[in-house]
Amino acid sequence: MRKKIIIGSIFIIVIGLFIGFNIAKNQSKPASTAAFKTIKLKPKEVTSTVMTPGSLSFSEEQFIYVEEEKGKLNEIAVKEGQKVKTGTLLLTYENKELELEEQQQALAAETSTLKLEQLRNRLGELDETKAGEPSSHSKNERDQLELELKAAELEQKQAELNKEKVKAQIEDLTIHSKIEGTVISIEREAVAGKLEERQPLIHIGNEKKMIVRGLVSEYDAIKVKKKQKVRVTSDVIHGKSWQGVVKKVGAVPAQAASETTTGDQSVQYPVEIEIKGKNPDAKPGFKMIMEIETDKRQAQTVPDSAIKKEDGEQYVYIVEKNILKKVKVELGETTGNDLEVTKGLTKEDQIIVNPSDDMYDGMEVNAE
Questions:
Q1: Segment among 58-67, 139-148, 245-254 with least mean pLDDT
Q2: Distance between CA atoms of 205 and 255, rounded to whole angstroms?
Q3: Alpha-carbon distance 83 to 205, whole Å?
Q4: Nearest CA to 269 among 228, 231, 220?
Q5: 253: Cβ–Cβ under 8 A, 6 or more apart, which residues?
Q6: Contact yes or no for 117/220 (Cβ under 8 A)
């Protein structure tokens, strides 16, 4: 009986040692990557953009200011909100002095014409009366008449020029529209003064064509080109966007350059975006946001969840022969939830999609 007890105890000890050995063996295995999903670099189309604020404006505008030198304002021939075409009469001035001068120049031109005809008649008569009786006296008389005739011709030309000049000045008293559009405003109390201070008497804008004007930095100005696609949005009008193209990029920087305390200048270049299709339901002056598409290309990307940050640098974990390797990467553009990788990885690398905080370089894993 005692022998059976001893044998049973030995058997139980052996079983216990066997179970303990297996537990220790399992605990000593490397962590399984079953919990760590791996992927390779994914090719994806990425877009480079430049974002900058701007203001909605008319593509075509005409401002008419008071010009006191033209005389007294006589009549404003249009009303606010009125549609106008190129050549539509807008306003007229009254100038009595010019009207009198026009009459004087007309009389001067008529007088010079009569004088010219008179001299030509005298030359004709001289030729008839002195025919066959040439003398030094008749020759001198003819020479004198010819000189007077040339002087009279010059006087007539000058009179005609003066007449045309006054005529042009009188035509300038009538102001016409240079564009097709709508009369936006009429300021009847507008007065003359410095250009930067005075108000326009009449403002006309073409509502059919709208643009967004803004500024880009000297760095971005190199990338922005004509005809590039633009997405326009507004913080005021939520959930809507409009398509456009770059119409113009300034060749010289904007006049107003802001200086910093160190004396450096922030150089910015003007840019104009033409709205395509339906115009925004907004008024000129509304603040808009321009997203200019400067480049579109195929790039190698990873999900943003794969990126870890440390000391201002980005890195990922890849698996090489069941060992984790911490790899520093350089990133480019962002497209949705994916980031462009410009340096650090190859197409064959197995990248951990969701690295945990307890992972470290050289950690053993079981790649299944």
A1: 139-148
A2: 25
A3: 10
A4: 220
A5: 218, 267, 268, 269
A6: no
